[in-house]
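Reopening this ticket.

The earlier resolution said the output was attached, but the attachment link was broken on my side. Pasting everything inline this time so it's all in one place.
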Amino acid sequence: EVLSTSRHFSSLIRSSSEVKYVDSWFESIVKPTEFYAKHAAHSTVRRYFYNVDLHGRLFLEETLPKNITTSIKDEKFLNFFFSRVQKVREVDEHFLALEGIDKDYPFVSLCGKEVNFIRPAATPIVFHSLERNILYFGGTLQVPFEPASLAVSPRTGQLYHKIQQHEKPLHGEYGLIRSSVAVALSDHIKPGCKDDDDFALYFCMEGNEFLIDKLPAASEPGEWALPTDQEK
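Inline output:
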């Protein structure tokens, strides 16, 4: 049973054809060069547009191709950027509506007179590594790994972790766990049944079992996200 669970999470690591699909999706959402230049040069509020991939890597949206070489890697910048992520404000929604792109960017990161709009492939916060029960995102930002905070998406089968700390961005929301980290965690995950005989997954650690909740529907990525296989 544990082996089959491991295979499930291993299947989330994308094949070469799936990587090409992700690349094609990123290419399809890039806007004309003039769009980015116009908003970056605004006299009062400079606006930039970013993407976050399924590995938690950050890119300017107009950057193609998107890979580890072209991603933004400066830890200081990444920590600054991701520590300020929040849902779009009313003023941001108004701007996006005027531009006819109100469905594209659900998150922002604010920096003085700059507004950085974010369109992630899944979530703006992706936990890219796990060391000594600490989950890392951005550059070196971290939250403690808590088995009781795990959730699995009924829609995609992907593993998520709740952001519990009040000082962190999007407190109470969920961050995606990178597929390679999910595979490492899968050794501790086993299927079972709840009291109502519903199928469930449990995280087993130090003799304890923690029920892995289903990701709330409101926390599932929206229509702005990378479509699933069924939605292609």
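Reporter confirms the inline version is readable. The radius of gyration is 18 Å. The chain has a mean pLDDT of 90.
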